Structures are given as structure tokens and as C-alpha cells.
Amino acid sequence: MLLLLQQVVNGLIIGSTYAVVAVGFSMVFTVLRVINFAHPDIFMLGMFAGLAAGTYVSHSFVVVLVLGALGAGVAGLVLERLVIRPLRGRDVLMTLIATLGVAIMLENGMALLKGPDPVPYPALLGQAALGLGGIRIGERQLANFAISLLVLALASYYVRATRYGRATRAIAERPDVAAAFGVNVDVISRITVVLASMMAGVAAVSVGALYGSASAFVGLLYGLKSFVVMLVAGNRYFEGVMAVALGLGVLEALVTGYISSSLSDAVAFFMLIAVLYFRPNGLFGSYAA
Amino acid sequence: MASFGFWEPIIIFSLLNLIFTAGLYITALSGQLSMATAAFGGIGGYVSAVLTTNFDWPFLPAIAAAALAGAVLGGLLAALTIRMRDFILKLTTLAFGEAMAVIAFNIPYLGGANGFSGIPLYTTMTDIVIAALLAIYIAWRFDGSRLGFASRAVRDDPLAASANGVSIRQTRIITFMLGSAIICAGGALAAHYVLLVTPSQMGFYYSLNYIIFLLFGGLQVLWGPLLASVLLTAAPEVLRFTSEYRLILYGLIIVMVVLWRPDGLLTRKKGEGSALNPLGPRAPDPLT
């Protein structure tokens, strides 16, 4: 029982990071109809922006988080201008391939700068662990989880309760009608990409602090998974994407704990096959691509 | 055949990828852009490897068995996805490929994560050249055959195609079977050259390579994807003088082609569409 609870806790912590990356991924897809495979590498850039900030600027966790988010946001802005904007309206698969080309460039470019092996991350948080009735939660894990939830809550507030969020939802529904009602599709699209990138940047810094290392190829782990999470959930409600990401984290942790770690990566794909078979538009509907 | 030294592996891998791409082209012509190419290649490799290593089959029958396995699995996958919309079909083939990789991973008989090794070296340069020529010939004849035209009709407008007496079901299943058989035979050839088949090489990122070849070369003309498969396989090697920058350049080339040549490297002048642009190069905007 204790093992079960411990695995669930671990799974929720991993899943919260999946959720932040997958929600950003899904926001970009829903608003722009672009499968942004460079998104996980924006995450990677945010991680290294945080690394640079932690090394040269300050050891304060908050400062590093903000600078990591800014770094990722700037990268997102450049990506939007150079690649994503010209791709709008193209076949979804072509957008996937072009952004995958960007991902290859970013990963190998960073590997060239920092070497292909993981580099140590500045120690931003303590190593202390809380004991909660036998379950151990590290301070870093707790920080990672809290930050991810905060980011998700802010994203939810933005999309549900602000004017810009309403415009974003309108574009997701019908871009042409939204434009006819005076929504500036270009501006909202740019804001969406930058916001998604900044969310990824925050998550990246907290993951870097959690594991104490940063790697140029960290995006590979999150890329395919956030894609699958979006497909399983369907991109209609982004709360659905969060729920599926958390659920995937827990399922993977349980499979790792009880069956074998080699099968844990397969969980996502079995989920995908089952969902595509029974609910071909995702659990919560949509993705008319 | 003469030795090509440093160039030999590059030529062999280029031609292997050409065979795979020819198979994928046939499958994609009827509108089924399979994202499981590498998985089929791996299946072909496993079949041939097991038959030659553990059952002492000779080379040619083993390749034939691999092609047969590919045809059967391809037919099944086509039958499973026959009613699916385009986007969902792609995703199902993606999930199928990953599932195959996981299954191979968890069968101890096939060597699990380490893959199946100890495969005899059979494939020579001559074999590869003959196989590539054969694949090109099949794809070329298919391209201009009744079946090829039926496939394009199914891809561009299933309703009009069936109204004109083309069976969507039959066309899609046959093209998927033919394409997968070629891919599996290519996978078998690869297995007897690399001497190792692993589950990891069956994954999505490998399959994506072949889709890149296809879209990079252009889906309208057979020679586009074939040219692209050879160019892009050789590119990282030819760019080796730029050493560490080569993968960055590779990514850059892909981005630039997608942005600046939307229909791929080689295109027809006018009129005909492609899987990605069914109404032709200058499709009218439905809103105007």
C-alpha cells in the first residue's frame, strides 16, 4: 500500500511536468494548426537559459525561473516569426516535419555548444525530504509539482477568464469567424506561441533543478509524449490534456513499480491505440485537422 | 562487384532507403501515408533473421517470407484503418509501429532490447543494386498502371472514385500490401547487412525519416521521393567535412525545403494534386 502511494506521488510529480509541456503543445496546435515538434526543444532552451542564469546571474531560484521563462519565450518568438507563421494553413504533417527540422538543429546546436552529455545544474534548492506517513517527498519534487500546478492554474485563468483568452478560444473554434469579429489572429497566435514557450521554460528550470542536470537531448523524452497526451485527451478542453498527462505520469510510475521499467514507455502508446479505436477524436473530443 | 571503399556503406544505405521509400510511395499513393515504415522494415528484418539463423533457411526464401509477412500485416493494417479519416489513419499507423517495437522489445526469443544478433552476412553490393532496380521497376510500373491511377483517384476523391467503379477497399488494401511487402523485403536485406535488428530502430523517429524523404522529394512524381531518399541519406556523410555542423545543416535543409518548396523538390507543372494538396497546386480558397 505504501509502495502504491509512493508510486502515485512520484507519478503525479512527473505527470505535472508532462502536463505543462503537453498543454503548451496542444495550445499551439489548437490555435495555429501547427504540430510544433520544436516545442520540447524550446523546453530544452529554457533549461539552458536557466543554467546560464544560475551560473552567471544569481542563485535565487525565482530569478532563475524568470530568466529561464524569458529565454524560452524569446526562442518561441523567433520560432514563431521564422518558421511557424509561414507554415500556417499548410498540411499538419508538413508542419510536423518542418518543426522537426528545427528540433534537429536546436538539439545538435546545443550539443555542439555544451557537449552531448548531461551537464550539472546549479544547486538551486535543498536536498531535504519530507516524510508524510511513510511516503517521502523531496523538497525539489515538491517545488517542481507546485510550480507546475501554478503554471497550469495561470494558463487556465488566462484562457478561461481574460479577454485575450476568449479571443484564443474563438480562434481555436473558427479562425475565420474570429477574424470577422475583429480578433487579431496574428497577434493572438504570436502570444499563444510565446506563452506556451514560457510555460515550457518554467517547467524546464524546475525539472533541471529537480534532477540536477541538463541535457541537449532532454526534449526527446517529452516530445513524443506530449504529442500522444494531446491525442489521447483530444484538444477540445485543455483541462483534459492536464488530466491525461497526470494520469499518464501515474500509470507510468505504476508500471515501473509493479511490472518493469522497460514497459513504462509503452504505456502512452497502448493508451493511444485504445483511445483511437474507441474514441477516434480523443477522450474529450475535437482535433479536426 | 568492385569495391567502393569509404563510399560502399553510404551507397548501400542510400539504396536501402530508396527501397523503403519506393514501398512507402506505393502505400501513400492511395492516400495512406503510413507512419510505420521503420516498424515494417524491422518486422522484415526479424522474420528473415530468425529464419536464416535459427532454421537455416537460404537467403532468397527468407526474403520472400519477409515480404509475405509484410504483405499480410500491411493488408491487416489497411483493413483496420479503412474507414478512418486521414489524420486518424496516420496516427493509427504511428501507434501500430510503436506497438510493434514494444512487442519485439518484450519477446525474449527475439533478443529483447539488445535486438537479434548473429545474423549471417548475405547481402552484397550486387544484391542491393539488383533489389533497388527491382523496387524502382515495380514502383514505376505501378505508377503508370490501372491500379496506380485507381489509387490516385481514391486519394483525391474517394466518392468520385467509387462512383466510377473503383473499389476503395480493394485499392487501399492492395497498395498497402504491396508497399509493405517491398519495405519488409528491404528490411530483410538491411538485416543481413547490418547483422543486427533492434526494437529501437522500429520507432517513430525512424519512420519519420521516410516521410521526410517522401515530402521532401514531392508526392506528385515517383522520382522525387527516390531522389530525396538517396540525397538525404548521403547528405550527412557528404557533409562530413563540416563535421559537427552536419546535423544542424541537415535540419536546416529540411526546414528550407518545407518552407520554400511546399510540394517538394520535384513537381509536375500543373493540374494534378498530391496527398497533401488534393485539389492541385493552386487550389481555390474555399472562403473567397
Describe this structure in words.
The complex is a heterodimer of chains A (289) and B (288). By secondary structure, chain A is mainly α. Chain A has one domain (13-220). Chain A has twelve helices and four strands. Chain A has helices at residues 2-32, 39-57, 61-87, 92-114, 139-161, 163-173, 175-180, 185-211, 219-233, 238-258, 261-264, 267-278, and strands at 119-120, 129-132, 135-138, 213-214. In chain A, a hairpin with a 2-residue loop joins strand 2 (129-132) and strand 3. Chain A is globular, with a radius of gyration of 18 Å. Chain A starts with a helix and ends in an 11-residue tail after the last helix. Chain B has a domain at 7-203. Residues 278-288 of chain B have low confidence and may be disordered. Chain B has a two-stranded antiparallel ribbon. Chain B is an all-alpha fold. In chain B, helix 1 runs parallel beside helix 5, helix 2 runs antiparallel to helix 3 and helix 5 (125-144) packs across helix 6. Helix content of chain B is 67%, strand content 1%. The radius of gyration of chain B is 19 Å and the shape is globular. Chain B has helices at residues 7-29, 37-55, 59-80, 86-105, 125-144, 146-156, 158-163, 168-194, 204-217, 223-238, 246-260; strands at 116-117, 196-197. Classes of the chains: A mainly alpha (289), B mainly alpha (288). The A-B interface holds A 83, 86-87, 90-94, 97-98, 100-106, 108-109, 112, 176, 224, 231, 262-263, 265-266, 269-270, 272-273, 276, 280, 287, 289 and B 33, 84-85, 87-88, 90-92, 94-96, 98-99, 102, 105-106, 112-113, 204-205, 208, 211-212, 215, 244-245, 247-248, 250-255, 258-259, 262, 276-277, 287.
